[in-house]
Predict the structure of ABC transporter permease.
Amino acid sequence: MNFPFFIARRYFSSKKKKSFISLISNISMLGVGVGTMALVIVLSVFNGMEELNRQLFRSFDPDLKITPAKGKRIDVTPALLTQIKQTQGVKLATQVIEDNALARYADRRVVVKLKGVDSTFEQRHQLDTALVYGTVQVMADGEPKAVVGATVQQLLGINPNDILTPLELWYPRSDTRSLNLNSPDAFNQQIIRVGGVYMLELRFDDYVIVPLDFAAELLDYGTKRSSIELQLQPNADADAVKSDLEKKVGDAYVIRTRDEQNADLLRAIRLEKLFVTVTLGLIVLVAAVNIFFSLSMLVIEKRDDIKMLFAMGATRSLVKRIFLFEGGLVAFAGAAVGLMLGVIVCWVQQTYGLVSMGMVSSLVDAYPVKMVWQDFVITGLLVISVTIIVSFLPAKRAAEMG
């Protein structure tokens, strides 16, 4: 056995060590354990939140989205559509028209995001699991239907079973020079029946999804489109398909993956995760300061042992390693217990969902948790690094006693 480690282990586990130093050492282990457990739990919760948002994205956003590099409209030609559909990995290409519009139902009004889609949208089956009423069909028996988000339904008080009250959609006419809000002639107006209601999350629930031709007529888009949304084959690599498409369609279009479409939100989650990691790392540092004090006092208490070791031929390097190992054992014991407790708490939350999010309209009742091995490595490296830093000075002082 390594001699410095053997001596350090004896100091660490000695049953005769009933002094104040022992109390400080135990407090150090407890502090490191609590800090480590908190890091594991909080990082796993942030991972869970990121994964939950990705699940929401998959329920609404396409795998790839093609938008114009300049302006708001794309001139979708048959040649362009053929190029896109023949790209390896592309399963469906949905033409989309999207803009804000005024929705009116009975005596209520609200501004909504109007999204016109072609027939391939129904084949994507993205909203199937989010439906709370009706179907995702935007055309039924030759009649256009609207699929609305839960927020729109609540704000307008829409009753899907009321066949007498249609949903009215208004959009300013493009040939009107000055907009007169009191003049009905200043707006294009269309009526449509609600055929389905879905509920995902607030940022997705303010949409009204209608047939493409219906939106084109209301918004004066003609043959232009806002974007082309692509659903890929199950095993297709989104980045590889994106790269292939960029070579084909040129610089006139911007192609974004699902993560890139929601880059701001994902970036915010990662920044919050980083700041929380730094904050909890400071807690571990405070606990490590206790290791510094306990080692310093241990060096003073073991002066006779240190002199005896030097008399027996021990080098300064060997004595220094003894106290570095001692600090490492204190930190490792605390970190091991903290990691174990953190894993147990995360597993219990994953399995039983004990801690609720407290949101009635949320898709999940409890805080989502996802354990990632990289977080355990980061936590371990953080604890080891802090321990080595705070243990170095006491170990150096012990080595200088010879």
